[in-house]
Automatic annotation (TrEMBL):
Pfam families: 7tm_1 (PF00001). The lineage of its organism: Eukaryota, Metazoa, Ecdysozoa, Arthropoda, Hexapoda. PANTHER family: OPSIN. InterPro entries: GPCR_opsins, GPCR_Rhodpsn, GPCR_Rhodpsn_7TM, Opsin, Retinal_BS. The keyword Transmembrane applies. It is found in: Membrane. GO terms for biological process: phototransduction; visual perception. PROSITE patterns: G_PROTEIN_RECEP_F1_2, OPSIN. It is a multi-pass membrane protein. This is G-protein coupled receptors family 1 profile domain-containing protein. Belongs to the G-protein coupled receptor 1 family. Opsin subfamily. The keyword Transport does not apply.
Length: 313
């Protein structure tokens, strides 16, 4: 089920966001990149299914390394891409006139997210620092967090900070600044309306802003799901390195690893539920899904504004 949902959902996201003219914006480049990381995560699932039936890691050491590399690239990639999406939402909504990222800027940030996953994927793969090993029921692989030596403890602490704490810090900062900007904007509108003795001051720019806010809510939902999916696994790794290893039974280490994979199949369906223009495209191209989305009146504002800006540039 996870494999089917992830492949169908993420392939639809990549296909529609890449080929639809109204959705081909700089901001949505991050969504496509996140979907690619999700598909990489899904590539682990066939290996896990076969390993579960044969009751060992298929491919032995080579298979273990392949499985762990896929998990490392996708997990860290999802984390830093969520941070990039938070930065993009903050820039777009807080500075709607001159804060939007253009395609070149978005491409540079996406390239950074792909380079971000390299150090803690290559180093344990080459056994320069850390190593990949089996975990749980010995049918999946990840980095070693159970070896009782100082080198392993330092490695686990560094990868925890690099792949979890730093992206989480960026995300919390940008979303908190975004909420602060929204509150200040609403306060300014209320004060101005009060001075002019009118009920509200809602302009076309504010309507566009509301569209961006809805997209920000989708991005925040995906971040929240990522947090729920990866926090148990991060906790298990820290317990393995620094805590009481007796509590880490095979079941206790296997369940967080499985739960972490669930985020790759949930992400694309969050867009299907919450993104009106994406649902409209799905309705046009995938009639078999039975989607009935009414035509939106203001959802194209963001894309049009970005198009005008790029034309002027």
């Amino acid at each position: 089920m996870l494999l089917a949902m992830s492949c169908v959902g993420n392939c639809c996201v990549i296909w529609i966001f890449s080929t639809s003219k109204s959705l081909r914006t700089a901001s949505n480049m991050f969504i496509v990149s996140l979907a690619i990381f999700d598909i990489i995560m899904a590539l682990e699932i066939p290996m896990f299914i076969v390993s579960s039936f044969v009751e060992r890691m298929i491919g032995w050491e080579i298979g273990c390394d392949i499985y762990a590399v896929l998990g490392s690239v996708s997990g860290m990639g999802q984390a830093i891409t969520n941070a990039a999406i938070a930065f993009d939402r903050y820039r777009t909504i807080s500075c709607p006139i001159d804060g939007r990222l253009n395609s070149k800027q978005a491409a540079v940030i996406i390239a950074i997210t792909w380079f971000w996953v390299t150090p803690f994927t290559v180093l344990p793969l080459l056994k320069v620092w850390g190593r990949f090993t089996t975990e749980g029921f010995l049918t999946t692989c990840s980095f070693d967090f159970l070896t009782d030596d100082q080198d392993t403890k330092v490695f686990v602490m560094c990868i925890f900070i690099w792949s979890y704490v730093i992206p989480l810090t960026f995300i919390v900062y940008f979303y908190s600044q975004l909420l602060k900007s929204i509150r200040n904007h609403e306060k300014m509108l209320r004060e101005q309306a009060k001075k002019m003795n009118v009920k509200s001051l809602v302009s076309n720019q504010d309507k566009e802003r509301s569209v961006e806010l809805r997209i920000a809510k989708v991005a925040f939902t995906i971040f929240f799901l990522f947090l729920l999916a990866w926090t148990p696994y991060a906790t298990v790794a820290m317990i393995g390195a620094f805590g009481n290893r007796e509590v880490l039974t095979p079941v206790a280490t296997m369940l967080p690893a499985l739960f972490a994979k669930s985020v790759s199949c949930i992400d694309p369906w969050i867009y299907a539920i919450n993104h009106p223009r994406y649902r409209q495209e799905l309705q046009k191209r995938c009639k078999w899904m039975g989607i009935h989305e009414p035509e939106a009146t203001h959802d194209s504002a963001s894309a049009q504004t970005e198009k005008i800006k790029s034309d002027e540039a």
